[in-house]
Specification:
9 helices, 3 domains, 7 strands, two-stranded antiparallel sheet, alpha+beta
Amino acid sequence: MKHQITVRLYNCSNIQLLLRFAGRSARSVVVILMLATSSALAESGAQFAKANQEYAAGHFKEAVDGYQSLAHGGKWTANLFYDLGNAYFHTGDLGRAILNYERALTLDRHHPEAQANLRIARDEARALEMTPTSGERFTQFASANQLTIAAAMAFWFGVFSLARWIFSGRRSSGAIGLSILSLLIFAITVASIFWIDSGNKGRGLAVVTENDVEARLATADNARSVLALPPGSEIKILSKRGDWIYAALPNDLRGWIAAKNAEQVRL
């Protein structure tokens, strides 16, 4: 399934109203910013449309180049990484297909097409997965971004409730109870964000992108192998030393792999 970038056009009456109340120099800045934004959106839309055309024509390497150009420019959306994953899948690059499906799911964890295609690509590549920690399993109902918003709302609601209780002439037990409950929710959501970021599927998560990769006991190509990692396998980066990554591996193992053989999921 292909997706199109929607370019939002400015309403002329809103622009005129904004310019009417701005000074001359401010009007110039506003016009320049709006023109630059519109131009950037139009260019991104054209690049995305061209990449979609290449994909539809079966020119998958050209589609990869188009989608990658948008990704390198910071135009990150779940649909962009999903389409990039599809293009890589059709070129036979299962490692990078899985990487981009996972990137799509970090932006939209309920993206059904990305979830389905990720399972297909993993089965075909026989990729190994990291087991979520108990904290991650507890927080699977929401993403880190959603929890961050919830934490901010709970914090400020608790602070305002507490301030109202302190400065109000009538100090009800309900107000202080509501404040305590809000701050408790804030603490739980902050802990949940920490579990997500520090877990096996968190900020350190990376995907093996090359073929015939083996994790080793030391930073040397001739060191003893710990585990063979098919393309698309997940690892958790623990530290880096030069051109090597020390990582937590599936099956509760640890080992070193060359940094060029894996890419971090979160950009």
